[in-house]
Amino acid sequence: MLFLVAALLLMGILLGTAAHLPVPVTLVAAAVIAGWLLVFFLRERRHNDEVTSR
Fold first, then answer.
1. Are 29 and 14 in contact (CB under 8 A)?
2. Which parts of the chain span the membrane according to its record (predicted)?
3. 13-37 pLDDT, tens per residue?
4. Which of 3, 15, 16, 44 sits at 20 to 30 Å (Cα–Cα) from 22?
């Protein structure tokens, strides 16, 4: 739960600063965040598959 609160706080800060950043920088940051979320999703999915197969 604490992680979720911190993530929302950081997202609010980043979205506020995104208005002041050039568009290419914002797009690169969005791509990095999307990649991180994709890796997290794949790791969680693989972990859940391993747990259910036991």
1. yes
2. 28-44
3. 777 777 778 889 888 988 999 999 9
4. 3
